[in-house]
Predict the 3D structure of the following.
Amino acid sequence: MLHKPDGVDSRMNQQMTSQATQLVDRRREFHRYPEPSWCEYWTTARIVDHLEHIGVDEIHVGAEGMDPAARMHLPPTSEREQWRERARERGADPATLDRMDGATGCVAVLDRGDGPHVGLRVDIDALPITEAADDEHAPAANGFRSDNEGYMHACGHDGHAAIGLGVVEAIAASDFAGRLTVFFQPAEEVLGGGKPMAQSPHVEGIDALFAVHLGLGHGTGDVVAGVEKPLSVKELSATVTGDSAHAGRAPNEGANAIQGMAAAVQSLYAIPRHEEGLTRVNVGTVDAGDAINVVAADAQMDVEVRAETDALAEYMYDEVDRRLQASAEMHDCQGEVELLSEAPRADSDPALREHVAGIAADVAGVDTTIPVADFGASEDATYFMDAVSEAGGESSYLIVGTDHPSGHHTSGFDIDEESLSIAVDVLTRAIEAY
């Protein structure tokens, strides 16, 4: 029988406890300062701080880690500059902010000699949601509720950022041989950051890519080794332009953009379902009119379409465009549809799913390993998956379960912080064993 020296178990337990505490501390740090898509200046700077402390071989910041020309769904420059200044005021390293060159996110590389090139993608942005403030909401009760009122990490990306750092740290301390590239991707919530990062040289040569998300209906102790059927998605801005007029004296002289928009909304929800697969449409926002006594000259709405295949998503886009223009014309207005962002469908590779499932089954805290599950939503990590696949590599999008008291994208969303260590262990072992 092999006997461990006295104190080994104790030291190992202390080390594991310290790592878990560090993951929680980092997650709470990110949670307390959420930043919206393409405005993650402070978040990026803090990730860079942690990476420099860990010690990695390369850090590519902002525009260095992507093709800036491929960015989608960018907010106005003035809005991004305001968030950058707020990050500076909060203590973000000015040199790091300057290196970003107007873009956010970063890429970290560990080069450990000959071996496979493995990639990991995590996302880092937050949502424009006001966070719950009651004592039943753990972040509020424990002092790490959002400091940016009106914004919160309501989807777990704070945890994803912490997981990415945890994996880098664990691999850096291991005997891993090969190259690990970790993408801390901005702007997932608007499907804007995946494409520019996936088109960067940093993706070239990746043999295996892992992406990860917490929760999504799976509780703590569950691990989904890979997903399939993520929905192809397109996010659109639709406008109707008419002519204003006095609503009392001469309404006939106007062309009512609100009427055109209202007709369009009803028509979009009447797009026929398709025999070849699932389709979705949603009008998320509508903005129109200037005053109660004025025939509205302008109306705007944000629309998303999703579908089981890229071809069906294109069908939905064409139908939105056709129906908007027809509805506008019916009321003597003009209609226009602008594509804001999009993401394709990409399924996890069966072989890599099996690899993850075999690893996860032996990880402490994992109670149930699910070989594959339908995703049912959309993600721009699919750009990475497509890029790797086209070059002959393989990829898998994991779900690490976490107990969350309310649904994603709600004011009361939170995670079970025990799931952070589970995610780091599963990913680290899967990378080491690849």
